[in-house]
Amino acid sequence: MEQTPWRWGEPGAIGRILAAARQRAGLTQAELARRLAVSAANLSRIEHGSDLRVSTLLEIARELQFEPMLIPKNLAPAVRAILEEQKGGAERPERGRFA
To answer: Which CATH number fits domain 13-89: 1.10.260.40, 1.10.443.10, 2.40.30.10, 1.10.10.60?
Structure first.
């Protein structure tokens, strides 16, 4: 199972999530920065937890194939549970099936 590079709600977690997604996509900071028309230094600061504008977050997220959305706080635990189930589900064999 893939190690999660962050904990929910942890300071700087968004930057680590974006950095991990960039790496999974096989992109360097310089390549992603070029695609976004920002400096690599700025992208590095963002990945290390610097504050960023919502518009910048949306641009980076969409370039990395995320669909940003706002979730009501009371539904966040259910959404997290679904995401964890989906992440782990691909590695577990289905029950009730013969090999």
So the answer is: 1.10.260.40
